[in-house]
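Suppose a colleague, Dr. K., hands you the sequence of a protein chain of 507 amino acids and asks what its three-dimensional shape might be. Before reaching for any lab equipment, you can write down a predicted structure in token form. Begin with the sequence itself:
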Amino acid sequence: MASLAAVNADRGRGESHAALQTRPALTESQFDFKIPSRQLKLSIELSSSKESQLMSNANKSDRDVVLVEGVRTPFAKAGTKLKDVHPAELGRTALQELIARSNLDTEVVDEVIIGNTGNPSDAVNISRVVALRSGIPLKTPAFSVHRNCASAMESITLGYEKIKSGTSDVIVAGGTESMSQLPLLMPPAIVEIFGKLGAARTTGQRLSVLGQLLKADLKQIVEMVTTSPFAQTPHKPRISVMEGLTDPFKGINMGQTAEILAKEFGISREEQDRFAVRSHARAVAAQKSGRMAEEITPVFLAPKFKEVVSEDIGPRDGQSMEQLAKLKPFFDKKYGTITAGNSCPITDGAAMVLLMSREKAKALGHKLVARIRSYAFAGLEPERMGLGPAYSTPIALKRAGLDFKELGLVELNEAFAAQVIACEKALNSDEFCKEKLGLSGKLGEIDPEILNVNGGAIALGHPVGTTGTRIVLTLMKEMQKRNVQFGLATLCIGGGQGGSVILERED
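The predicted structure, expressed as tokens, is then:
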């Protein structure tokens, strides 16, 4: 994910993960396909006491955590329709609609928890800002969470824990993100000059410092013209979205991690493009049928509030293999297969869900949509972060007391087509599941007919601080429509983690 102008030029359709090139392209020789001597294995064994506790939750109880409603804004590619909408305003739009749709008495809300990665300087605890703007009472506390791509899933699981423990009964959880508004950062050389300007006491001193600033600006212009858009130089502004999506441990960006998986799992460019075509086709079909509109509330654009964004700006009707084939690999230009077309776009948007204890939901007369059966987070190598769902899902299934084959729907976030396909191959591999996950054998194959049935992030977009709630919201709605008993929402997390939530449909 990256700077706005760069990808617009590359793809002509807005921002993409594929605009995140911050390091030289990886070469074929840089990939080591040997299993590391120090194996990264995942133990999913639970202590007998913990396992007994988790398994006892299989029976419905008053302390079950249920989802009663959810809603989101449309998603729009960064730099397009929602670019001027503050993330707090996106969050307010979603939360006020959630309150209206659920006919919620805001006095009963115990806490508001919202995921966000951009952390705007004028709304540092954005959850509190969103809550108060939405009419949540002053007495109700709110806090923001950050777990990279799973920030908005973390908000749900934290709400789950608060309700399960008995400390809360009603939690608003969600996420909001404006990736359009992530700032450019002043380089140290420029910051130093502004510091001198602030310390100057006389007109002569100020003029002298301004002269230094003009020279630095000229150097900045030269560096911007003569170097790569993503090269780090002393005077050029730093692109915060690009830096945020670069792993500080390995020094590679998310697109490069997808290239690693594509090579290690033998995933072809054709496979990735075919997956991307399917994502767009399903998203367009969901839009045309009205299924997607059921989870979306429109955003009216300031200042006149006459222009309205009412559907996702991303799905492309008629997206073809031929069109995608014209795009060049972005991260590894010589050997790579990851393009703007088979990556998710950088996106703006917000999503909210309402969590309650079963007892409270029934007392207030709310319809129960789904029960949170279990969740899990897991860690893995940062350079293979895209495999995160393969690590977290077995733990979530174990905690839910379910088999993989019992899942009737799966929402697996499409950061990159290669990353999703790699997860599919890993979970269906005896070797991987034994050596990496410590299982007795493979979990099984994900039926393509139950995977991202309304399309995924390649078509819809990936507002990083929001997606974790979006996939849970989409899953809970679709489980009701299709009469599916169990569903999985899962995603990879920058830095080398995976998150999974298992839902059970309520009648």
